[in-house]
Amino acid sequence: MNAPLLNDTFLRALRRQPTDHTPVWLMRQAGRYLPEYCATRAKAGSFMGLATNVAYATEVTLQPLDRYALDAAILFSDILTVPDAMGLGLSFAQGEGPKFAKVVRDEAAVAELAVPDMDKLRYVFDAVTSIRKALNGRVPLIGFSGSPWTLACYMVEGGGSDDYRLVKSLMYRRPDLMHRILAVNADAVAAYLNAQIEAGAQAVMVFDSWGGVLADGAFQAFSLAYTRRVLDQLKREHDGQQIPRIVFTKGGGLWIDEIADLDTDAIGLDWTVNLGRARERVGHKVALQGNLDPNVLFAGPEQIAEEACKVLDSYGNHPGHVFNLGHGISQFTPPEAVSALVDAVHSHSRRMRQSPAA
After folding, report:
1. b/e code 139-176 from CB counts within 10 Å (16+ = b)
2. Catalytic, out of 8, 16, 37, 41
3. Fewer CB atoms < 10 Å away: N or C end of the chain?
4. Does 326 show up as a binding residue in the annotation?
5. Annotated binding residue at 31?
6. Which of 37, 56, 154, 192 is catalytic?
7. DSSP class per residue in 91-118
8. Residue 236 is assigned to a ligand binding site
9. Distance from C-alpha of 188 to C-alpha of 178, rounded to nearest angstrom
10. Catalytic residue among 15, 67, 78, 180
11. 76: number of Cβ within 10 Å
């Protein structure tokens, strides 16, 4: 746990300090596109069998780092562990998305909600500690959670959704109930992330995956306000080290300025946003993370390198950029495509640092 970091490029970029290359990691970098992940998942028997087993979670977290020169590891888990600990009964059917046995759609269900006992999530914190030890200083470890709004979407809908009809109906019909759900979620997420920090996470990320489905005005009231409530409760330091935080709102390009006003170190951006213009808007207030379209990885290596360079050139030769995809990597991505991407990001960004005119 106390091993010195051999590669702190990711943390320095989040602090907007100069780096000799642009650090890169990928959302969902430990996943089904890797044959070794699929083999471990088969041994575990199910997704939750994988996520709740400390040894397996450690193994799959390190798999992409053994294959690629990534600059950060991210805890292998799921954003829905918190509502599962609230007693909603999370399950993953083969080939399907997450499902909850219980849904939260009326006063009685909302009244039952409470911040869960963090001991119910001990398997997550034990995995964080195990992964941090296994990394032995190779790269930093990112902890994460879903945002209060994103968790609420799943809790009300009972799973994924194409139109968010149920959660939006509740929000407009009974905003009082939605605010109650979000307040409980925010306090639970803050406790959850603080426990990850105590267990060894060196940065934390809030995935507001569905914030972008909200109308302007509703986003500020039902998503942004509760992400702020999380951040206001988070530990800023642990064991003498600053713990940077990242907020990623998919579809949140409209609200970059407001997200940048949060107490966050970095904003994650999806692929619809121009990084250069985003940097002009936020200045040096926050670092930016992103934002290659994940489907670029289905092109050939030359095209992948070309598109990666466009993202880097758009941001420019300035500190404060963490390269990532604009959303999670597809399970159908050829593994060799990631090699092409990581190599291109590292080599082109190093050339940029060496050229004052870049």
Report:
1. bbbbbbbbbbbbbbbbbbbbbebeebeebbebbeeeee
2. 41
3. N
4. no
5. yes
6. 154
7. EE-TTS-EEESS---SHHHHHH--PPPG
8. no
9. 15
10. 78
11. 25
Looking at the domain that runs over 9-354, which CATH code has it been given?
Answer: 3.20.20.210
Looking at residue 358, its pLDDT comes to: 44
Would you write out the chain's pLDDT as a tens digit for each of its 358 residues? 778 999 999 999 999 999 999 999 999 999 999 999 999 999 999 888 999 999 999 999 999 999 999 999 999 999 999 999 999 998 887 667 889 999 999 999 999 999 999 999 999 999 999 999 999 999 999 999 999 999 999 999 998 888 999 999 999 999 999 999 999 999 999 999 999 999 999 999 999 999 999 999 999 999 999 999 999 999 999 999 999 999 999 999 999 999 999 999 999 999 999 999 999 999 989 999 999 999 999 999 999 999 999 999 999 999 999 999 999 999 999 999 999 999 999 999 999 998 764 4
Provide CB contacts within 8 A for 253, sequence distance 6+.
Answer: 269, 270, 272, 273, 278
Q: How many C-beta atoms surround the C-beta of residue 31 within 10 A?
A: 20
How many Cα neighbours within 13 Å face the side chain of 219? Answer: 19
15, 32, 174, 180: the active-site residue? 32
Catalytic (active site) residue 229: no
The alpha carbons of the chain give a radius of gyration, in whole angstroms, of: 19
Please say if 226 is a catalytic residue: no
pLDDT at 94: 67
Q: Which residue has the tokens 């296994």?
A: 134
Give 189-248 as a 3 state SS string.
HHHHHHHHHHHCCCEEEEEECCHHHCCCCHHHHHHHHHHHHHHHHCCCEECCEECCEEEE
28 is catalytic: yes
Phi and psi at 114, nearest 5°, equal: -155, 155
Residue 28 assigned to a binding site: yes
Sheet holding 245-249, edge to edge: 73-74, 141-146, 203-208, 245-249, 266-268, 287-289, 321-322
Read off the tokens for 55. Answer: 């040894």
